[in-house]
Structure formats: structure tokens, C-alpha cells
Design goal:
Length: 410
């Protein structure tokens, strides 16, 4: 069975300066349902297959298959532990909540019964003609069919090869993209495109957010990828954390200047400031460590405290939004009861809260009692930021945890 792209499809991608990724829909889509997750809880099994130009793609099929399995497992875990309690008992039947990534994923040969194809460095002539210029992007999640009754889609994920006629034309596309840092770029781009299959759209939470539109381009950029490889221990660990929640555990500010050293009472050699959680059961317990190198032990210099001038308190806040939205019409046969019975003909369901920002307004107290200053600790998709008062003015971005600068402090 040939899988082709609808000539009417709209491909969402970034092509400014370097190749990126995208998502699109073909047969059976409407303006509202084009971003629906492809599979809901009524689908028990997803059959997937791999088609590959192994000579040009850059890694073996066994390596690619493992990356695909790991990407599927990542999303299944992330969705399974996410906050998803938007509907009260009896509002949404028979499943109670909108759930995705609940299926068994079974690898099969590619045939007419395949639900999801991974096309690695390979496209048919019809697909190339429908896309127009596939060499302008790194990856694409494309839905070829959608059943508005079963709320189920079929489609493919395409990933560009390292070499050959389909290699991206951008001069910024790295030479050995999928081989670098033990295949980390391939895993992250696959996870990004699979996120679209599960109903996640491009985010604007920051360039280290897995669903940021720029993420595929960043991980395949010939200047950025070597930096990612140097910092793989941090970046890959960051991106392996469950998607929907921040893990508020530690923050590293790796290139302190003279002003920062003065404010925190550090010597000229102490360019590393690390904030770590103390008691994991106490959300206010953070300790400040400092030192000259990440390779050497850091000493504790202070902690988060409430006594810092006019505001003697610790305030913590966070924000979130629903990450998955499903549009349905009166054709749907999946849900027997919907939250708004008067609007069952056309409506939407939402699920999975995505934490978008964490903020702590408190004080910093040095262990020797000499320094008490207000601090603002923020965490979002751009990484941690530490704000304080500088020359009588609040600077909310006084320090940033920027992985691109870490190697400069080693």
C-alpha cells in the first residue's frame, strides 16, 4: 500500500537559516481536529513499522529501532505520571479522563494495517512531489488518515538522512548528525515528532523544551551540536525528565562575573554557584554551594531564608496549562457521556497539565550571617534564572543557567 501526502496539506515548519521539524495532516482532517492525538484509549494497540535508507541515514536499523522504542517509552512514562484530573467522576464516560499513550506499540512489517510508519531517510516520489522540497526540514509528523467516529489517525514520521539526495540543503545541518553524542540528536528529534502524534503542539516555553519548534534545528545545527555533545550529561538528563513537570532539584550558574562574586561574598576564583535542594520534603529548603570548578567539591555558603529586609516570607508559585486538546463532532462514538451534554455535537476535551513556570520569591542568607539579600528563583523552558537587587534595581535575570556557557568555566 502506498502512503502519500495530501496535496492540500499545510506543513508547519521553520526554514529560517536551518532545517527544522513540523507536523501536518492529510486525509480526513478539519481545521479543528488536525492537531488531535492520533490514538485514544479506545485504541488498544498501535502497529508501527520502519522503512529506512540505511546506506544514507547514518545509523543502522537496529540503532534506529532502539531509539524509536526509547522515544515511545519516554512518552508513555511522561503521560502516565502527569497530572490529568480535569474531569469529575461521571463527567466523561467510559474513560473518566482524556488519555493518550496508553496503547501497546507493536513493531510489524509495513502493510495496509500499519498505523504509524517511521520513514528514515526515505520518501516515495509521490510524497516528495506533495511536500515540494523535503530537504528543507529535519523531521515531520504527518497524519494521512483520520476517523472522526473512532477518533483515530494513521500516518508517518519522516526523519531526514545524513547523506544522499534527501539530505537537508541547509549549510547548518551537521555532517554526522545522528551519530554524534551516541545518537542523542536522533532520540530527541524522534521524541519531538512523536509528541505531535500524541497531540502535543509546538511550545513557546524555551529552547530546552522538547516541543519547542526550534528544538530539531538546534539539535542538528553544526555549531550547536558539538556543544550539546560536550554538555550531553546535563542536556540529555534534562530532556529525559518526564515532560509535564519540572524537577526542582538543582540549578547551576557556571560563569559568575565580578559583580555576582561580590554580591554573594565569593573570591575571584569562585566562578561556580550551584543551588541544590536540601530536604526533599521541604519545598523551601535550598542550599547554595560555590567553588572554582565543577570538577572539584563545592562548599556550602548559604541557604534560602525568609529574613531578607522588608518582605520576611518565602512565596512559591507555579503556572500550568493543558497540553492536549481533542476536538470532536457528533460523529464520535468513543465517549458515551461528555462534560457538556448540551454541546455534544461539536466540542473539545482537554487533558494533561503542563507546568510552564516555577517561581520562588525569598531571601538568601549566608552561613556567616553577613549577607541577607532578596532573591527570585525562576524555572521555565529556558532553564533556571536567579534574580536579585543590583544597585537598588531588581534584576530578574541576574544569573541564568545556560548550558552553552558551562564549558567556559571548566
Amino acid at each position: 500500500m502506498r502512503v502519500i501526502f495530501s496535496t492540500a496539506c499545510l506543513i508547519s515548519m521553520s526554514t529560517v537559516a536551518l532545517a527544522s521539524g513540523g507536523t501536518s495532516s492529510g486525509g480526513g482532517n478539519t481545521i479543528t481536529n488536525r492537531n488531535n492525538p492520533w490514538f485514544l484509549e479506545n485504541t488498544k494497540e498501535v502497529r508501527y513499522c520502519i522503512e529506512m535508507d540505511e546506506a544514507n541515514f547514518g545509523v543502522s536499523e537496529s540503532v534506529a529501532a532502539e531509539a524509536i522504542q526509547n522515544s515511545i517509552a519516554y512518552w508513555k512514562k511522561s503521560f502516565a505520571i502527569a497530572d490529568n484530573n480535569g474531569y469529575e467522576e461521571g463527567q466523561l464516560e467510559p474513560y473518566g479522563q482524556l488519555r493518550v499513550a496508553t496503547q501497546r506499540f507493536v513493531k510489524t512489517d509495513c502493510n495496509e494495517n500499519t498505523d504509524l510508519r517511521f520513514q528514515l531517510g526515505i520518501l516515495s516520489p509521490d510524497q516528495i512531489e506533495a511536500i515540494g522540497e523535503p530537504r528543507e526540514f529535519v523531521g515531520l509528523a504527518f497524519r494521512t488518515e483520520y476517523d472522526p467516529k473512532e477518533l483515530k489517525g494513521k500516518g508517518l514520521i519522516y526523519i531526514a538522512p545524513q547523506s544522499g539526495p534527501l539530505r537537508p540543503t541547509s549549510t547548518y545541518f551537521a555532517e554526522k548528525t545522528w551519530e554524534t553524542c551516541e545518537g542523542c540528536a536522533l532520540r530527541e528529534v524522534l521524541k519531538h515528532e512523536l509528541g505531535h502524534v500524541f497531540g502535543l503542539q509546538h511550545s513557546n516555553y524555551g529552547d530546552l523544551d522538547l516541543m519547542d519548534e526550534r528544538m530539531p534545528a538546534m539539535f542538528t545545527h553544526n555549531e550547536v551540536l558539538p556543544e550539546i555533545e560536550r554538555e550531553a550529561a546535563y542536556i540529555v538528563k534534562h530532556l529525559e525528565k518526564p515532560y509535564f513537570h519540572f524537577e526542582i532539584d538543582s540549578f547551576l550558574f557556571a560563569t559568575l562575573d565580578e559583580e555576582a562574586q561580590k554580591i554573594f561574598g565569593l573570591t575571584s576564583n569562585e566562578k561556580i554557584l550551584k543551588i541544590v535542594r536540601g530536604n526533599p520534603d521541604n519545598e523551601d529548603d535550598f542550599r547554595f554551594l560555590a567553588g572554582s570548578s565543577q570538577q572539584l567539591p563545592l562548599k556550602e555558603i548559604g541557604k534560602i531564608c525568609s529574613e531578607h529586609g522588608r518582605m520576611n516570607s518565602i512565596q512559591v508559585s507555579s503556572s500550568s496549562e493543558y497540553a492536549v486538546v481533542l476536538y470532536y463532532t457528533d460523529e464520535q462514538r468513543v465517549f458515551s457521556r461528555l462534560p457538556d451534554p448540551e454541546n455534544e455535537g461539536l466540542g473539545q476535551l482537554s487533558g494533561y497539565e503542563k507546568q510552564t513556570e516555577y517561581e520562588m520569591s525569598a531571601g538568601y542568607c549566608s552561613n556567616d550571617g553577613q549577607i541577607r539579600i532578596p532573591v527570585l528563583l525562576r524555572l521555565d523552558g529556558n532553564g533556571p534564572r536567579l534574580g536579585t537587587v543590583v544597585d537598588g534595581i531588581i534584576d530578574t535575570d541576574f544569573l541564568r543557567d545556560d548550558w552553552r556557557l558551562r564549558n567556559q568555566s571548566k
